[in-house]
Each structure stands twice: as structure tokens, then as C-alpha cells.
Amino acid sequence: SDDLIGQILNIDLDRLVKSEPVALSLDLQGDDAGKLFVSGKLLPLSVSLSPAVKDTSVSAYLAVKILKAKQIPNNDQYPYTFKIHAAGVSGVTKPSSAEPNKAIPPNLVKVCEQLAKRGTSSNDISVICDLDENQVMEVLGRTDKSLKEKYMTKRVKNASTNPHFNEVVQLLIPDPRSNGDGTIRLEMIDKKGRVAGTTEVSVASLLEAKNKMITGPLTLEPVEAQLYCGVTLRWLAEV
To answer: How many CB atoms within 10 Å of residue 57?
Structure first.
């Protein structure tokens, strides 16, 4: 298994984009874990293809933001990942999870707790307080064991049918017009590594779209689920 030997947090970006490598101190639970020498460069991007990168092995930047999928048939094959294929290059997301609830302001938490003590149902509380019932169940489940079990059952179903990702897959690719099959393919992979659903965005339509950007929802076949996502292409201005 992988072992953590050190980490660097809150790196100043200005330090990384200098031409000379900089020494960054590694930390392991407060102890000195050595140094890492790093140099970096900001990629200048453009909506237009520059002649300077026309025939290079890497000429474009592709960003695919996977937010969430909805209406997936209920099963036990979650968590899911999304694998992105474009111009012979691939990238993958982290495993999905249930969509997190929005935090409830402390004053509303107290109102929910007071209503619950009066015997008001979680559904009625959500209507009264203009909240999602899952938010109410999560808060009240901290002290109500039966409600917590009910909430966890709903959360498992939500993780299965409406997986949440909120992640951007970033790829540096060759000219997608002349490499690959002219499509950007998004595959939803189940926990056993099987393709559970796919959708495609044509390179031609992406290049014609405003700001070289296409947003979902897109339909995942054959499950006919909805994928909420965004696909953006930029050309490298230089290499």
C-alpha cells in the first residue's frame, strides 16, 4: 500500500511559476520530512489555434467537469467513476458519493429541533422551514436513532441513483480534429469496472460552440440517465 512520507500545504503559486526550481519543505505530522524541488509554468490558453502549436504532440487543453448523474437505475454497483477519452488520452474521476446536503443555519437547526419535539414530521418540518427533507433528517438524526437509519437508507439510494462527483478532469491532448475518432467519450464505470453508461460530444460541435464550451445535461446510454457536466476546449498559445 502507499504510505504518506510527507506533504506540502498552501503552496504560493508565484513561487512555482519561476524558471528555476524552488525547494519546498515536506512535513509529516509536524516533523521535517525533507525537501522537494519543483518548478512550474502557467499554460497560456486561447480559443484560437496558434500556428506555433499546430503540429505539436500536445496542442490543446480539455477540461471536463463532471457534476452529477441522475435517474440511474437503483442497484448496488456504486460508487461510480467517469473515464474521459479524447484524442488517444484518458483521465478518470475519483469515486462518486451521495450528494452532500447544504448546511442549515444554526437558528433554523433550533427551529427544526423544537418542531420535532412537538411531534412534527421531518417532511412537514422541511415544508415549514423551506428546506430539503434530507437536510432535516440529517440534523434530527443526530439525536433520533430511527430517523438516522431512515436517512442513511435514503442516502444509500441517492448514492446509487444520483451519484455526485463535482470534479474536473483536465487533459493535455494533441489536435482532436486529426487524432482519435472525432469524439470526446464519457464512460460511467461501476465498482466492478464495467461500463454502465456512455455519452459522447463531437469535437466538431465543441469547436463550433460559443467559447468552445458545451454544458449538459447529456443522456447516458443505454440507461437513459442524465449527466450534468461541462466540456471546455482551449488551444495552447505556446508550448
So the answer is: 11
